[in-house]
Structures are given as C-alpha cells and as structure tokens.
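Feature request, filed as a ticket because there's no other form

It would be nice if the structure record came with a short human-readable summary line next to the tokens. Right now we just get the raw output. Example of a typical job, pasted below so the devs can see what we mean:
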Amino acid sequence: MTSTDTNPAAPPASSSSAVVVVADPAAPPANDPYDEFFEDFAPCVVTVAYNDDDNKATKYGTGFILLSEDNYTVIFASDRRLESRYDNIGKYYIYFDANVKIEAEVLECNEFLILLVRDEKERKPVRFCVDPVEHEEVTTIGAMGGIKLHVNTRAIHTLIGVLGSYIGDVTTKSCAARDSNGIALEGTERFFRVECFALNQIVTVRNVDNKSNQTARRLASAPVFRLTTGEVVGIIYSTSDWCDIKKGLHAKDVISVLLNLFQRTEPDITKWEDGLKRWAERRMQIRE
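Raw output as currently delivered:
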C-alpha cells in the first residue's frame, strides 16, 4: 500500500497570495508498548528455510531458540511441511535476521524439528512457562512471507528473514474433550485455542512455483508469548482452523515431548535442558 504526501489538514493556497499556509505537523506518536515487546523478544525467534536437492523451491517456517552457547544454537520448529523426506534430503538454513543466514544440522526430524547451528555467538533463548494459560491477551512472533518464483528467476529477498508479530486472545484455555459416552479423548487436553488474524500484520505471499504450489507464510511453531512476563505459554501447532482461530500446544507439553525424546535413549536425564545440551555437544564433537 502506498500513501500520498497530501496533507488534508493544510488549507488551500489563496489565489491572491503566493504564500501557502501549512498546518503544523502532528505530534509524533507515543512509544507503542507492543513495539518494545517485539524488540525485546524477536531475538528469540528465527526464520527457517528448507531447500530440496533440486533447489527448485524454498520452504519457509518459524523456529525459536531453545538453547544457545558461545559456539552453537539449537532451534525448535514444528511445521511439518518443513520436514525433509528420506528420499530427498535437502538443506536447512536459519535466518537470525534478514542479513544473517547460517546452514543448520538436523538433530531430530519427527513430529518436531530440532536444528543445530554452529555459531560463535550466544543468542537469546525463550523462557517456557508451565502455568496454565488463561483467557488472556497474548502475542506471537513469526516468519513473514518469502518467495522464490522459479529455479530460473531471481528470488525476492525483501521479506526473507524478517519477522512480524500480532496480538491475539486465548479463546479456549483447554481443548479437553469427551466422546458421547463421557470418556475423555486422550491428547485433546494438550491444546488450547488462540485468536490471531494472519492478515493483520503478517504479510502473506504465495509461492507461484507450479511444481510445488507451496505457500510462503509459515506461522506454525510460532511461540505464543504472555504479555505480562514475556514467557512462552505455548506454540502455534495448527493454522488450519476456521475463522482464524489457531490451535496452540501448551508449553508443558512441548517440554514433555522434549524430555521423552531424550529419555528414550538416556533415562537418567530429568531436565530437558540437560538432554538437549548433551545431544548438541555430542554433535559438536563430530566435526571438531
């Protein structure tokens, strides 16, 4: 959208005078608290890109930082459309911002995607909150639109690596459900619902590569932040609900998934942070 330089507050020039009277400019807007929140917590969030072997299309998604040390950073994502296939393994890249792009290594690729980046800069991880989410105002931060038109065309880089945020409301604290016999449906309690409008501030661009027909907007796995504390109460798990109501996965269930992942082979691990650090440092030693 473009705007004109016309000032509706300025009176028209008098035909009998060469002097044009222009109204005083409006006072600058006060600092937006949401802008300050975004500046504080956007460093926890990244854009994830995946290129297949043929390099004909790039898929973009949202990830966030789980752990960061002075020589590596570990990224979490849950957008299953980003997952590589065993018969077509490609490459993952992390955009820490629009100017910093680093290739990532896969630590885990199942229901969730865990990536390791060899990066000599300690970055800001998210802080999980296991307290139940309430009917409250929250915000998400996610990857904005990016597009690669075709293998033979120049990619549009304007929005690649750029993050956007918008405000939403938790509409359902728990999606726990029962069947017609009153029996609890296992797993439904893991989720909540949050209302957030994807076209509010997040830009949507469609990938027009006819072979892949992928949409470039990737909000799945965007962290859901509690505005009062900046803690992550969950992640966007599904963006396909009706009326722009997104399904969220509670933070405690994200932690449970991580802990179960590490305990499958190392039952002595009691904290997900310890398991993740052990996995990451073991991988770091492979190429040292």
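Something like this underneath would help us a lot:
The helical segments are 33-41, 251-263, 272-286.
Confidence is low (pLDDT under 50) at residues 1-28, 199-217.
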